[in-house]
Amino acid sequence: MKKWLAILGLVTFSMNSAVSFAADVVGTLAVKSTMMVRGTPEKVWGIIGGFNDLPKWHPAIAKSQLEISGDANSGGITSRILTLNVPDNPVIVEQLLSQDPEKMTYSYAITKTVPEVLPVQNYMSTISVVPVDKNQSQVIWEGSFSALPNTDPAKAKEIVENVYTTGLINLKGMLNTTADGKVLPERENSRVAK
């Protein structure tokens, strides 16, 4: 009898774990935005490739401050504290997961969010620059996350899409403007794709 109770308990535990895992998978949302921009990959990466560079090209970010915990030489944790460009200047904290300057990509996770502004959890994202031709690049910003409890998943997804699109459109504007403020002609394939 004890043996059967132990087996039943194990089966129940396994089923509960499977249901919990399935709920996590079902609740995962994904957003991917791409933008063709004028400029060599090196030039574009020079603008967006630094983990602390987001305020340089994203209008929603007022400032960014790097924080390194632990020993940086032995793989310390690098975080950026982002002050948002909205009333009350709330703060979001993101942790650098990986960065590869040669491949022009980095990945990060949100470790602290502001539910009223960005109602997501389990958020991980990657920003990459891909060469198209000698003077054009594609920027890819993609992420996966789930909506916070009591948040409509469609609304959470729309907010993240808006964050990505706003940043990419601003970046494109920066790269398509000459030093004297003239806007360069639009290329057909330089629209945002979702």
Automatic annotation (TrEMBL):
CDD domains: PYR_PYL_RCAR_like (cd07821). The keyword Kinase does not apply. This is Polyketide cyclase / dehydrase and lipid transport. It comes from Beggiatoa alba B18LD. The keyword Lyase does not apply. Residues 1-22 form the signal peptide. Keywords: Signal.
